[in-house]
Amino acid sequence: MLIEDLYRAPWHERMVKVIEGMVSSVITDNDMLAKEIQEWENSETRNNMITGELYYLNKTDILKKEQKIKWKSNQKLAHGFAKKLVDQKIGYLLSKEPTFGTENKVYSKIMQETFDRGLLKKIKNVGKEAINKGIAYLYPYINEKGDLSFMKFPSEQIIPFWGDNEHMKLISFIRVYEISIYMDGEKKKQKKVEYYHSGGIKFFVKENNRLIPDVPAGIEQNFHFTINDKPYVWENIPLIHFKYNEEEQPLIDSIKSLIDNFNLQASTNADLLADIPKFIYKLINFGGEDLSEFLSDLNKYMAVKLDENGDVDKLQAEIQTDAVEKEIDRNRNSIYEFGRGVDTREESLRDASGVALRFRYSDLDMDCNILEAEFQSSIEHMIWFINHYLFMTGKGDFTKEKINIIFNRDIIISETEAIDSCGKSVGILDDKTIRENHPWYTEEVEARLEEQKKEEIEGYQDTFGKDDVTVDE
Q1: Do 332 and 388 reside in the same domain of the chain?
Q2: CB distance 26 to 40 below 8 Å
Q3: Residues 217-260 pLDDT 10s
Q4: Helix or strand run (H / E) with residue 138
Q5: What is the DSSP string of 215-242?
Q6: Which pairing describes strands 220-221 and 230-232: parallel, antiparallel, or unpaired?
Q7: Cα separation, 102 vs 109, whole angstroms
């Protein structure tokens, strides 16, 4: 035995220390989730989402404008360009009900009942959120009645973990949100964390950058939902994403600096107009004590006191704002160009022909083409959950049914040209196709027309007898 062996710890003690060091260096799952949350809350992506929503609500950076000189004006003119552009895109693409094309009549009826006005309104709101924040989310769940429902999760609350570079397949996701609770008689904020994975959901409370199991919420459940108290797990992670574009880039990224400059120029110009007086008085040998006495006498008596050889003159203040107005107009044009919208203030739109209107709406149409492609994919994912819910509840197996999703856009057209084209198409196209392309055509019009035909046939039958009237099918 060597002398140093007398002072060396036994082998098993050394191994215990090595193992303890290895364990302490390994990050736990909960610590990893906590780090992901911390990074997300400080990320530029999340900040842009919040900015996009603030600008939609017209809470722009111009409201932070300060004026150090007390007597000067401090106008804060906020212009709602973001809201107008977002609403324009949503109104253009999602204002009308989409068409779900399928040859299965039973399935078609189920789809019409499922995508009722409430759900279509929710999809419309999801579209608004996607444009404002780059991406939006719907969460499928089973409500108290046992029906499949969808809840919109605010985008800034969701941390997705993608399984591919295209961000199409989710592996899991975290939801972080705040609630108000009462502790020791005081109302406080508590940060809740829900981790959704393929096997169920884990519940936490976030305190001091650490995740603590949420006992009241149940800590963990090994299922996603229950039907008649029977637990189920979705084959896919229960979250449906709706993107504004492939890059998940919000609209505000393209127009924020332009809106800020427009607001600043307009506000500065307003300050200039407010601060420059209309008249400047020139006094020679004023007979009063101070200027306040002069203004008081002028307003009260319409006269002023002057010394010998005294005089009063008035100078006109010249205000030069042409350069600022031109800059503001250029900035406005840039906002609509890079925001891919239509400036309805343009006088050229009032009497524009069909071709001119289509040209003016080309940028908006192009942007909505991208949005439509993303939403078609998302609604297909949404239908996957609907089909599997129908199968699990014994309402039919429609998992292999083919269905086409058609967005009916609110296209701006020249009604006069459209009606004239319909008239010229008689004899070339069938009557129903011509009617469907008429600007005043609706399903109600078609129903009334069918009712009118039916009444006419019944009138002929009453006149000539049922056996004398035949109807072509």
Answers
A1: yes
A2: no
A3: 889 999 999 998 899 999 999 999 999 999 999 999 999 999 99
A4: strand 135-142
A5: TTTTSEES-SEEETTEEE--SS-S-EEE
A6: unpaired
A7: 10
**Are 35 and 150 part of one and the same domain?**
yes
Do both 285 and 229 map to the same domain? no
Residue 86 and residue 204 in one domain:
no
* 3-26 pLDDT, tens digit each: 445 445 555 565 555 445 544 444
User: Could you give phi then psi for residue 404, rounded to 5 degrees?
Assistant: -105, 135
What separation, in Å, do the N-terminal and C-terminal C-alpha atoms of the chain show?
A: 109
Do the Cβ atoms of 240 and 149 come closer than 8 Å? no
Distance CA 75, CA 72 (A): 10
Q: Which H helix or E strand runs over 178?
A: strand 170-183
pLDDT for 26 equals 43
Q: What is the pTM of this model?
A: 0.78
Domain coverage including residue 439: 416-468
Contact 236, 384 (CB under 8 A): yes
Q: Which long-range contacts (CB under 8 A, 24 or more apart) does 153-156 make?
A: 153/239, 154/129, 155/49, 155/129, 156/46, 156/49, 156/50
CB-CB neighbours of 13 under 10 Å: 10
Token pair belonging to 316: 């006109």
> Can you tell me the mean pLDDT for 125-132?
97
Query: Any residues with CB less than 8 A from the CB of 28 and at least 6 apart, and which?
Result: none
Work out whether the CA dihedral 119, 398, 241, 219 comes out positive or negative: positive
| Residue 167 tokens, joined | 């961000």
Express each pLDDT in 50-74 by its tens digit. Answer: 999 999 999 999 999 998 888 788 9
Report whether 382 contacts 240 (CB < 8 A).
yes
Residue 148 C-alpha from the chain's centroid: 24
Find the mean pLDDT for residues 148-168.
Answer: 95
- Torsion angle (degrees, nearest 10) of CA 406, 408, 409, 415: 140
Do 437 and 363 lie in one domain? The reply is no
* Angle made by CA atoms 25, 29, 30, in degrees to the nearest 5: 105
- How many separate domains does the chain show? 4
